[in-house]
Amino acid sequence: MGKILITGGTGFIGSHACIAFINAGYQVVLMDNLSNSKVEAAARIEMITGKHVRFYRTDMRDVEGMRQIFLNNKIDAVIHFAGLKAVGESVEKPLEYYENNIGGTIKLLEVMAEFQCNTMVLSSSATVYGCDNPVPYLEDMPISATNPYGYTKVMIEQILRDVCTANSSFRAVVLRYFNPIGAHESGLIGENPKGIPNNLVPYVAQVAVGKLKQLSVFGNDYDTPDGTGVRDYIHVMDLANGHVAALDYAMQHTGFEPINLGTGKGSSVLEVVHAYEKACRKQIPLQIVERRAGDIATSYADPTKAKELLGWEAVSNLEEMCADSWRFTLQNPNGI
Ligand code: NAD
Ligand code: UD1
Q1: What pLDDT was estimated at residue 52?
Q2: Residue 284: closest CA among 219, 222, 200, 228
Q3: Number of the ligand closest to the Cα of 108
Q4: How far is ligand 2, taken at its centre, from the CA of residue 120, in Å?
Q5: Helical axes 200-208 vs 269-280, angle rounded to 10°
Q6: What does the pLDDT read at residue 1?
Q7: What residues are in contact with ligand 2 under a 6 Å CB criterion?
């Protein structure tokens, strides 16, 4: 097993992926600028795995800092999570998003080239399916975006596609995540949003723990079974294990490969609320409000390609995801 660099390694998905890679026998090196996470996450990963984790507080745009990581460690592959991810904020600060996510990825790729590291597994998003494709989403559908965050993912995918064309030794597996939720079963790490959460499950968790009063359900007049939005929620540990399978695949195949990581099953906002109520044994107060701008009715994956190419599929159901989210929230009401 080789040595891998996990960028954004103290973040929500990166920290869970780190555990999956350590459990699979990889040596991992974490880097993060801590703009949206805490260094304590690295200590928690050590508690969970019993393994020492090397952590660098570095910004991916800092080329000298990145060179030091590659000089001190023989990195075989990069699992690239680092980036800014808040849709609303990206509309207000587009240059910051383009500069950090795209500019940072270009610098990272340049340093990788300098050290002949030719393998990347990238965090992309189902957001690249835009609003015109029919569900379920398939990897060969045209991609687009409706906001600057989404465009950073579309552009980074294109950059990797072009890098693979230019360098026939390069391998890029681009993972399009659907809606990752839940937490590691230990309750030690989980999602740690700053301020008031934008996403559904972190918001419901804060209502359940008494930090927020009630959930606003953004519309109940969509063309869905109960009128509320339908999404493909996936347990973050299933997602993490998908990265291990993706790296195994990348080690054996050159070129650019986009792959959905979803369950293939959609759940409505009200179904999520009911599953969460079961987990926390409380009622979640809610009100129906206007639709949120930019939302679509339904999004879910066709997960066939991941099963065929990676031999991976998600195993956790919505109740397990909510139970794990609730355990983390109860143990860490103010986050990590
Ligand atoms: P997160 O914010 O918890 O993790 C991202 C990490 O990147 C943070 O710890 C942040 O401090 C770090 N970071 C940001 N800019 C950096 C920089 N310039 N240098 C070094 N570190 C930097 O988010 P997450 O939910 O773990 O998401 C990980 C990746 O997955 C992101 O690229 C995100 O866009 C993508 N993604 C997330 C979701 C989701 O719902 N969470 C869905 C689809 C795709
Ligand atoms: C959001 C982002 C998307 C990103 C994804 C994963 C927007 C417009 N889209 O998508 O780009 O890839 O997160 O990070 O922000 N909901 C409520 N009340 C709430 C919060 C959400 O009713 O307080 C509903 C939404 O309308 C939606 C569902 O819950 O139907 C899920 O919302 P969310 O968790 O924000 O994920 P996405 O909308 O899929």
Answers
A1: 96
A2: 200
A3: 1
A4: 27
A5: 30
A6: 77
A7: 87, 125, 127, 150, 179, 198-200, 203, 215-218, 229, 231, 269, 292, 294-295, 299
pLDDT at 194: 83
Distance in angstroms (rounded) separating the CA atoms of residues 176 and 126: 5
Query: Active-site residue numbers?
Result: 149
Instruction: Tell me the residue length of the chain.
Output: 336
pLDDT > 90? residue 12: yes
In this prediction, residues 296-305 reach a mean pLDDT of 98
Q: How far is the CA of 17 from the centre of ligand 1 (A)?
A: 12
Strands 27-32 and 3-7: parallel
pTM assigned to the model:
0.98
Tell me the H-state helices in the chain: 12-23, 40-49, 63-72, 87-92, 94-97, 104-114, 148-166, 200-208, 236-252, 269-280, 304-305, 318-331
Residue 306 tokens read as: 């991941």
Which of 11, 12, 31, 30 is CA-nearest to residue 22?
30
CA of 221 to the centre of ligand 1 (A): 32
Express each pLDDT in 232-266 by its tens digit: 999 999 999 999 999 999 999 999 999 999 999 99
pLDDT band at 27 (very low <50, low <70, confident <90, very high): very high
State the pLDDT at residue 193: 81
- Judge whether 132 and 144 are in contact, CB under 8 Å: yes
The whole-angstrom separation of Cα 191 and Cα 255 is: 32
Q: Looking at ligand 2, which residue's alpha carbon is closest to its atom 7?
A: 87
SS3 of residue 267 by DSSP? strand
Separation between Cα atoms, residue 245 and residue 28, nearest integer Å: 16
pLDDT at 60: 98
Residue 220 burial (C-beta neighbours within 10 Å; 0-12, 13-18, 19+): middle
Give residue 272's pLDDT.
Answer: 98
**Residue 192 pLDDT > 90, yes or no?**
no
Distance 50 CA to ligand 1 centre (A): 25
User: Are the beta carbons of 115 and 78 closer than 8 angstroms?
Assistant: no
Q: Whose atoms come closest to the Cα of 243: which ligand?
A: 1
